[in-house]
């Protein structure tokens, strides 16, 4: 008999052995190769039935294997594939091809920032292996905040994690024509990408979903569902397979997907100043920014740290390279003309058009509330003040504000206080001017001023009961002044509303409400000079909740809160943090 041939060790044994010989931990090899720790661990434990050829090439490079060792590694892979009866993916060249869809959009140019968000997505990917139904992540945020850019950039960093391909579809949830892509049509596109002949694609949604899920069973595929309108549009596209990962983006919160389908939410905020600066530097060059630091900071502030607005501004600066940045900043200072300066002539990148797609989905009451918020002096508003602004019961105003918040047309940085960033505020004001007649606009402004004046007047009497009274005209119909019960609550209300009141005074003077322009300062006088409270008055620094100077206060780190001490029926005490 001939000499007995020892069987070749399995792929998982080879990888583990080569790693040990190199003196590397799994963590070190994963970092060096670019694979995730989970993917490497699965290979070493023999849990990967059809390891990706590219992934093994990355490992071989990281381990600096010789050509014979590389060949041995690939031979072990072919043996494993044959043993489990798997068909090879297209492009591997080791067997009959099957569909490996590569539908991701082109790589994102000049992507910067979002380090924390990328880390969250990476951590979620590490956890995906423990789920029996696959991972679902919902990336949400306001229009122009960079949801698609983040999702595509992250996906392209993890191609090796999805050896069976990547599916992508724009669900057109907020398309300009108002018609989102039907889920059945999206499934039809996916089935075509998976090489199902058109004649074999079922006609009904349920049948398409069943075929789609069957094809993805046992596969490791990324499914990127971009620009979803609501959970109902997303659910038929969920693979339900443990090897698949779904990333959905939307301007809506997709709360139903989080609640019923265990999706992991990731809400994108505006960029920090540092991230916004990095974005401009990537597009314009660090030297140009360094030459005009003040103008750069002003541009970032005028663009509200919104990625799309910053990208448009950078494009304008790049095409007008002979212009100083200070000239571009001066053009954006006028809030009423700012959106004109940020127009591109192309719907996909025109800021006004992008905002409009979100508003087209609103109900008539929600759309009216959004428009009227453009008339409010800012920087933020409570539900009680919004009720007076719109002439509605407080419960109805609260419901409408919640609806706008779910659509990311409004932010609620702390409970009970709502804010628009400056560009959305300018857009809302444009809509109000175009849609509401002058009489309705002045009525809304009058109700707003009545709300603050009558509440301030009552609070001022609590701060100093002996103060000289001024006679107020009755509040307009639809105004619901806030109830302030005692000295402490009065002090808290003034502190919480300080910047709103100052803005209201300026608005009154600018819009011809002359009586309010002197009556509001009169009501604030004792609070501002501290006579009513003497040495017992808390010392507050002002104004802590306004947008910080461009070089200060990164996003996510609130300034110290002003203790409002406010108690209204059914609502907790409200505190203030930075609002942008």
Distance between the termini: 83 Å
Category by helix and strand content: alpha/beta
Number of DSSP helical runs? 25
**Considering DSSP H and I runs of 4 or more, what fraction of the residues is helical?**
40-55%
| Rounded radius of gyration (Å) | 29 Å
Task: Outline the low-pLDDT stretches.
Answer: 1-6, 84-98, 531-580
Coarse shape: elongated
- Indicate the mean pLDDT: 85
Number of strands: 8
Residue share in β-strands: 5-15%
Main sheet overview: 5 strands, parallel
The tally of structural domains comes to 4
Q: Keyphrases for this structure?
A:
elongated, 580 residues, 434 Repressor (Amino-terminal Domain), disordered C terminus, 50% helix, 5-stranded parallel β-sheet, Rossmann fold, alpha/beta, 4 domains
Detailed description of the structure:
- By secondary structure, the chain is of the alpha/beta class.
- It has 4 domains: 74 residues, 434 Repressor (Amino-terminal Domain), CATH 1.10.260.40; 153 residues, Rossmann fold (3-Layer(aba) Sandwich); 81 residues, no CATH class; 176 residues, no CATH class.
- The protein is built from 25 helices and 8 strands.
- The longest helix is centred in the last third of the chain and has 26 residues.
- It is elongated.
């Amino acid at each position: 008999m001939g000499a007995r041939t020892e069987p070749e060790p399995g792929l998982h044994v080879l990888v583990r052995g080569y790693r040990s010989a190199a003196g590397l931990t799994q963590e070190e090899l994963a970092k060096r190769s670019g694979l995730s720790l989970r993917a490497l661990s699965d290979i070493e434990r023999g849990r990967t039935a059809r390891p990706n050829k590219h992934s093994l090439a990355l490992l071989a490079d990281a381990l600096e294997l010789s050509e014979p060792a590389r060949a041995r590694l690939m031979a072990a892979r072919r043996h494993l594939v044959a043993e489990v009866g798997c068909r090879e993916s297209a492009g591997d060249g080791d067997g009959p091809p099957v569909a490996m869809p590569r539908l991701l959009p082109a790589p994102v140019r000049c992507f910067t920032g979002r380090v924390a968000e990328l880390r969250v997505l990476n951590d979620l990917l590490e956890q995906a292996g423990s789920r029996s139904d696959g991972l679902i992540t919902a990336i949400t945020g306001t229009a122009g905040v960079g949801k698609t850019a983040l999702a595509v950039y992250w996906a392209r960093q993890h191609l090796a994690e999805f050896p069976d391909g990547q599916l992508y579809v724009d669900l057109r949830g907020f398309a300009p024509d108002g018609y989102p892509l039907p889920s059945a049509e999206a499934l039809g596109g996916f089935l075509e990408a998976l090489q199902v002949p058109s004649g074999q694609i079922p006609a009904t949604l349920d049948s398409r979903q069943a075929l789609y899920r069957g094809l993805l069973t046992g596969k490791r595929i990324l499914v990127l569902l971009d620009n979803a309108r609501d959970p109902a549009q997303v659910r038929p596209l969920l693979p339900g397979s443990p090897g698949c990962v779904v990333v959905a983006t939307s301007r809506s919160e997709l709360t139903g997907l989080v609640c019923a389908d265990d999706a992991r939410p990731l809400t994108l905020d505006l960029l920090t100043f540092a991230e916004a600066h990095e974005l401009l530097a990537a597009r314009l060059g660090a030297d140009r920014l360094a030459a005009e630091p003040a103008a750069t900071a002003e541009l970032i502030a005028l663009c509200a740290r919104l990625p799309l607005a910053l990208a448009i501004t950078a494009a304008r600066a790049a095409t007008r390279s002979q212009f100083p940045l200070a000239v571009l900043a001066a053009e954006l200072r006028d809030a009423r003309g700012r959106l004109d300066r940020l127009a591109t002539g192309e719907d996909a990148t025109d800021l006004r058009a992008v905002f409009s797609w979100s508003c087209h989905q609103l109900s008539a009451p929600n759309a009216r509330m959004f428009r009227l918020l453009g008339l409010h002096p800012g920087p933020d508003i409570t539900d009680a003040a919004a009720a007076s602004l719109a002439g509605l019961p407080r419960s109805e105003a609260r419901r409408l504000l919640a609806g706008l918040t779910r659509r990311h047309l409004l932010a609620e940085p702390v409970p009970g206080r709502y804010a628009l960033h400056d560009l959305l505020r300018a857009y809302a004001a444009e809509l109000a001017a175009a849609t509401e007649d002058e009489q309705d606009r002045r009525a809304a402004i009058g109700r707003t001023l009545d709300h603050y004046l009558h509440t301030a007047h009552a609070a001022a009497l609590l701060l100093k009961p002996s103060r000289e009274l001024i006679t107020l005209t009755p509040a307009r119909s639809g105004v619901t002044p806030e109830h302030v019960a005692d000295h402490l609550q009065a002090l808290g209300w003034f502190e919480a509303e300080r910047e709103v009141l100052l803005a209201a005074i300026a608005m009154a003077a600018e819009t011809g409400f002359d009586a309010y322009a002197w009556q509001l300062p009169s009501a604030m006088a004792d609070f501002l000079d501290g006579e009513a409270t003497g040495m017992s008055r808390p010392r507050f620094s002002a104004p802590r909740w306004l947008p910080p100077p461009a070089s200060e206060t990164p996003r996510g780190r609130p300034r110290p809160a002003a203790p409002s001490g406010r108690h209204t029926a059914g609502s907790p005490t409200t505190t203030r943090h930075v609002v942008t």
